[in-house]
Amino acid sequence: MSGKADKGLSDRTCRVLDYGERQEEKGRQQFARDVLLGFFRSPKSIPSRHFYDEEGNRLFQKIMDLPEYYLTDCELEILETHRERITGHLGGQAFNLVELGAGDGKKTRVLLSHFCERDLDFRYVPIDICKPALLQLIDICGRDLPGVPIDGLVSEYFDGLAWLSGLNDRRNVVLFLGSNIGNFNASEARVFLRSLWSSLNDGDLVLIGFDLKKDIELLMRAYNDPQGVTAQFNLNLLRRINRELGGDFQVESFEHYSTYDVLSGAMESYLVSRARQSVFIESLRMRFAFEAWEPIHTEVSHKYLAGEISSMADETGFEVVDELSDSRGWFLDSLWRVRKPLTRPARA
Ligand SMILES: C[S@@+](CC[C@H](N)C(=O)[O-])C[C@H]1O[C@@H](n2cnc3c(N)ncnc32)[C@H](O)[C@@H]1O
Predict the structure, then answer these.
(1) How far apart are CA 158 and CA 135, in angstroms?
(2) CATH at 135
(3) If DSSP states are collapsed to H, E and C, what string results for the chain?
(4) Which end of the chain has fewer CB atoms < 10 Å from its terminal CB, N or C?
């Protein structure tokens, strides 16, 4: 990795993984390719990782404060209630606390301050594709938790995992909170978990936040809040295409639609074109046609059964060490240990 320290972060470092000076341009090219690929698909789609530019990050923080968006409160309760139990699993040795898709780290700060109180020897490595979110997180931690050493990486998960595979100096403890895993479909989640497994060492730990299957009314309210913040978050994807790729989307002629698919067990979000229209995207030099009521798929938020979680751990090379739930039983933080047998598995 060729790290690059950002100025203005007091004594903290924010290293930008590998892209150097051209990082933003490369990010824009990737965004353009993903939009092109997604708009050639049927139904049209945009990958959900592109929600998180500066405005998307700001809107997501507003979502986390919504009473309908129970996920944040549930996981905050889990970490506050069980921080000592989690600490007990870490043993006494030094460790890297690596967080994938850290966002503003609101919930993680509960653990960070507890680990500081317990005088644990660790450094915090938040990894996120959204640079403004990461800078904000490092800034807040620098102010509130000045004793915690931090190396932040602005990176996509898989680049971050490649970098992680070189972290062999001490035990790695990986956080993947906030139901980020739910943004993968079933096979993508397994590919992600197996890649995570490959990047880690035997005995490393992973704490993953899973949103559980529950009353469909509760799910529907969480993704269709009456204030319309989630709608703005979704529509920001089109505004981002306008800002960064020179699109001419008339954003008000699209609407947010989110619904639960009982078969896949996921909330599915769409942007629906209210009228027949076409949109030109300057950086792609292409015009795209939309029929009236044609959807663009933007997000999947998978909901799990406890049994599905333990099977997925087993299939991808992990052992479930502990399961921590909130008082309503709506969310589960599952703690896994990496299993790396020394011998090759026998032929079936
Ligand atoms: C739903 S937010 C959750 C944030 C935090 N984990 C929490 O629980 O509050 C998802 C975060 O993951 C980041 N993210 C999404 N896709 C990513 C990807 N492919 N690679 C790296 N970060 C990603 C976003 O920028 C955002 O900060």
Answers:
(1) 20
(2) 3.40.50.150
(3) CCCCECCCCCCCEEEECCCHHHHHHHHHHHHHHHHHHHHHCCCEECCHHHHCCHHHHHHHHHHHCCCCCHHHHHHHHHHHHHHHHHHHHCCCCCEEEEEECCCCCCCHHHHHHHHHHCCCCEEEEEEECCHHHHHHHHHHHHHHCCCCCEEEEECCHHHHHHHHCCCCCCEEEEEECCCHHHHCCHHHHHHHHHHHHHHCCCCCEEEEEEEECCCHHHHHHHCCCCCCHHHHHHHHHHHHHHHHHCECCCHHHEEEEEEEECCCCEEEEEEEECCCEEEEEHHHCEEEEECCCCEEEEEEEECECHHHHHHHHHHCCEEEEEEEECCCCCEEEEEEEECCCCCCCCCC
(4) C
Give a yes or no: residue 129 inside a domain. Answer: yes
177 Cβ inside 6 Å of ligand 1:
yes
Q: Is residue 147 part of a domain?
A: yes
Q: Which atom belonging to ligand 1 lies closest to the Cα atom of 128? A: 22
Q: Determine the Cα–Cα distance for residues 124 and 141; give it in Å rounded to an integer.
A: 10
Range of the domain at 183: 13-21+63-215+304-338
pLDDT band with cut points at 50, 70 and 90 for residue 17: low
Spatial distance between the Cα atoms of 337 and 155, rounded to a whole number of angstroms: 24
Nearest CA to ligand 1 atom 11: 101
Residue nearest ligand 1's atom 20 by CA: 156
Say how many domains are in the chain: 1
The string of pLDDT tens digits covering residues 201-225 is 999 999 999 999 999 999 999 999 9
Rounded to the nearest angstrom, the distance between the alpha carbon of 191 and the centre of ligand 1 is 17
Q: Which residue CA neighbors atom 14 of ligand 1 most closely?
A: 101
- Kindly give the distance from the C-alpha atom of residue 193 to the centroid of ligand 1, in angstroms, as a whole number: 16
Within a domain: 231: no
Judge whether 32 lies within some domain: no
The pTM assigned to this predicted structure is: 0.94
What Rg do the C-alpha atoms of the chain give, in angstroms? 20
pLDDT of residue 112: 97
How far, in Å, is the centroid of ligand 1 from the Cα of 203? 25
